[in-house]
C-alpha cells in the first residue's frame, strides 16, 4: 500500500485526514491557509517532516494572491503569513526550518519581480517535498543496516509515512529493513493521549504487511524485561546541538527503560529536525495541549485497526531490588527482603 | 466522603459498580454467586484486598443453601464453590488467601454440625472484612510517617477505598498523611488499558479533597526528570517471599523510572497479599486479558471526573546520553554528539 500523506495536486494540498484513521481513509483538499492552519492545529496532518512540507506549501497559499508591487510590501505579506503559520504548533523544528528556508529564497531573490518570487517560493516548497521523500529513504537505508534479521522493534507515536511526505523516518527504517529481506516484528506503543501508535502506526504497519503487536505505553518495560525488545526506534520533533531530542511525550520514558535494560535506543530524523542554535534540550519549547485529550479517549472514534494483534497482561512484576520498602499493617519492611518479610510477618 | 466498596447488608453483598465511575456512583446488590463471579471478572469489584472480601462472602453464598448432611458431602460442595471462585481472576493473592482461610475454618470445625459450620464460615467472611478495615488503617499510619509534608506523590491504578473494603493501601497512606496534617499533592497516572487511575483514583482523591493531577502513564518519566515527584506509592496483587511484587501493568515501568531518578518507590499491601510459597516473582501467574481493552475505549463512558486537573505536554526531551545513535539522511551519528552532529551535518 502506497501512503501519500501530503501532495500538491491541481492547486490544492491533498492530505490524509489523520484524525479519521484507522476507521476511515479520507482525504482533505485544502485551498486556503486558514484551513491548513486548523488542519495542523487539530493534527489532521502531523509529524515533524510532514509539518515542514505543509508549512512550505502554506506560505505559497498565503502569498500567491498578494497584491504587493514592491518587495518591501511583499515582504510584509510574507512576514504576516510566516508568523501566522508559526503559531500553529511550537515544538517541531521542521516547521520553522521550512518557513525560514522559503523566506530565505524570497530574500535572496528580492531583486526579481514579485511574480517571479512567488514562482520561486512555490518551487522551493515542492523541492522541500521532493527532498523529504529522498531523505527518508536515505536515512532508512542507513538505519536498516543496523537492524539484524529477527529483531523485535519497539516504536512510539507515528514516525512513518503519515509523519512525512510518504515514507517515514523511524518506521521508514522498518520498511527498508523489510525491503532488504530482514525478518522483523514490531511492538507499537499506543502513545497516549492521542493514540498515534494505535491509530496510525499500527494501521500503517499492518497495511504494509509488518508483523505488529499493539501495546499500551505502560507495557514496554515488561516486554524489555522479558527480552522481547531488541531495539527502540523513535522519530524526533527537534534535536539540539548536543543531541538532546524532543519527541512525543513518552519517548524519554522509553529511553530510560532502554538504558536500564541495555537495549539500543535510536532516534531517526532528517537534518531539518536539528536546531543547532539550541545548546541543549532544556531550551526546546514544549507544547502544552488541551486537558480533554487526557480526560477523553480520542473522540469516540475507533482507536486501533480491526484485527491488530494485542498484548494485554493485566499485571507486571517489580523485582524487589527496585522497591524501597514494603509498607504493611505489621510494619515497614526494608531489604534484605527475604529475611525481613519472614521476620515481620511472623510478629 | 465515605466510600464503602463492599458491604454485607440484609443478606446481600452491596458493592459499588466500579465500571460506572466516575460518571455515576451506582450500587449493585448481589445475592447470587454467579452474579458475584461476573462482577469480579468484569471488574465491577476489583483491587486485591476487596477481592479477598468478595471471595470470602462468595463462599458463604455458595454453601449457605447446601443440602449436605455429612461433612464429606459438604466438603465437596465447598470445594466446588472454591474452585469456581478461583477461576475468576488468577493474580491477586488475597482472593486465594481468603478462600484458603475460609475453607480452613470449615476443616478445623469438621466435627461440628453443617449449620454450625455455615455460621462459622459467615463469621470468618465478616472477620476478613473487619480485619481489612483495620489493616488498611494500620499500614496507612506506618506509611504516612514516611511522607514529608509538601511531598508530591505518584500513584498507579487504584489502591484506595475502591480497592479495599473502605480505606485503601497506597491511597490509604495519602489519606492518613492528610489526616495528620501533611500537605501533599498527587499525580495519578491514568493506568491504561482500563484507566483505573483516571476513572477511580482521581475520582476518589478528588472526592476526599486531595490536590490531584491526572497524567497519562507516559508522562511519569518527565515529571520525575523535572523533580516534581518525591515518591511513588503502589499497591500490590501478590508479593513473593523475596519481595518481588506483582501489581497493575505499568508498575514495573514506574519502579525502573524511580530507580533511575533516585526516587523512593514504596509498595503498600496487607499480609494477605504475600505468597511465601513463591520464592520469587517469576512464579507469579499473570492474567492476560481481552485485546478489546486495548483496542477500544472504556465502554464509551466518561474516563475521568469533571474538572480534574490535567498535565498534558505533547512532547518530552530525551537527553542525548540515553540515545545510542541518531540516524539521519547524512549518516548515523554517534556520541560524542556535539562534535559529531556538527561534523555529519556539515557534509
Average pLDDT of chain A, to the nearest integer? 93
**Count of DSSP helices of chain A?**
11
- Outline of chain A: elongated
Instruction: Tell me the structural class of chain A.
Output: alpha/beta
CATH C-level name of the largest domain in chain A? Alpha Beta
Distance between the termini of chain A: 66 Å
According to CATH, what is the topology of the largest domain in chain A?
Answer: Rossmann fold
Largest pleated sheet of chain A? 6 strands, parallel
- The fourth-level CATH homologous superfamily of the largest domain in chain A is Translation initiation factor eif-2b, domain 2
User: Can you write the helix and strand succession of chain A as a string?
Assistant: EEEHHHHHEHEHEHEEEHEEHEEEEH
The strand order across the widest sheet of chain A is 10-7-4-5-6-12
> What is the architecture of the largest domain in chain A at the second tier of CATH?
3-Layer(aba) Sandwich
Q: Which ranges of chain A are low-confidence, i.e. pLDDT below 50, for 5 or more consecutive residues?
A: none
DSSP strand (E) fraction of chain A? 15-25%
Oligomer: homodimer
Helix fraction bin of chain A: 40-55%
The beta-strand count of chain A equals 15
Which two chains form the greatest contact, residue counts included? A-B, 110 and 110 residues
What's the number of structural domains of chain A?
2
Amino acid at each position: 500500500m502506497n501512503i501519500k500523506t501530503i501532495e500538491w495536486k491541481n492547486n490544492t494540498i491533498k492530505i490524509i485526514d489523520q484524525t479519521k484513521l484507522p476507521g476511515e481513509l479520507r482525504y482533505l483538499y485544502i485551498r486556503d491557509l486558514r484551513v491548513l492552519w486548523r488542519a495542523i492545529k487539530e493534527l489532521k496532518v502531523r509529524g515533524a517532516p510532514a509539518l515542514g512540507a505543509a508549512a512550505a506549501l502554506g506560505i505559497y497559499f498565503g502569498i500567491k494572491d498578494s497584491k504587493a508591487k514592491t518587495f518591501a510590501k511583499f515582504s510584509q505579506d510574507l512576514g504576516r503569513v510566516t508568523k501566522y503559520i508559526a503559531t500553529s504548533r511550537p515544538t517541531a523544528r521542521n516547521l520553522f526550518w521550512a518557513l525560514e528556508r522559503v523566506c530565505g529564497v524570497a530574500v535572496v531573490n528580492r531583486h526579481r519581480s514579485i511574480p517571479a518570487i512567488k514562482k520561486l517560493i512555490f518551487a522551493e516548497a515542492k523541492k522541500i517535498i521532493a527532498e523529504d521523500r529522498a531523505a527518508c529513504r536515505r536515512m532508512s537505508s542507513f538505519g536498516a543496516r543496523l537492524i539484524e534479521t529477527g529483531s523485535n522493534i519497539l516504536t512510539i507515536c507515528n514516525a512513518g509515512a503519515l509523519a512525512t511526505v510518504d515514507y517515514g523516518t523511524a518506521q521508514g527504517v522498518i520498511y527498508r529493513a523489510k525491503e532488504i529481506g530482514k525478518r522483523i516484528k514490531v511492538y507499537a506503543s499506543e502513545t497516549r493521549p492521542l493514540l498515534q501508535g494505535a491509530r496510525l502506526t499500527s494501521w500503517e504497519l499492518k497495511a504494509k504487511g509488518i508483523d505488529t503487536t499493539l501495546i499500551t505505553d505502560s507495557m514496554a518495560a515488561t516486554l524489555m524485561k522479558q527480552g522481547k525488545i531488541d531495539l527502540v526506534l523513535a522519530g524526533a520533533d527537534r534535536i539540539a546541538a548536543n543531541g538532546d531530542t524532543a519527541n512525543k511525550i513518552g519517548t524519554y520514558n522509553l529511553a530510560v527503560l532502554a538504558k536500564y535494560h541495555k537495549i539500543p535506543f535510536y532516534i531517526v530524523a532528517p537534518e531539518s529536525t536539528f536546531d543547532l542554535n539550541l545548546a541543549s534540550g532544556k531550551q526546546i519549547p514544549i507544547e502544552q495541549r488541551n486537558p480533554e485529550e487526557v480526560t477523553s479517549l480520542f473522540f469516540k472514534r475507533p482507536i486501533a485497526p480491526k484485527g491488530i494483534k494485542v498484548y494485554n497482561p493485566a499485571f507486571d512484576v517489580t523485582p524487589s531490588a527496585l522497591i524501597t520498602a514494603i509498607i504493611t499493617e505489621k510494619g515497614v519492611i526494608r531489604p534484605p527482603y527475604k529475611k525481613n518479610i519472614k521476620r515481620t510477618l511472623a510478629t
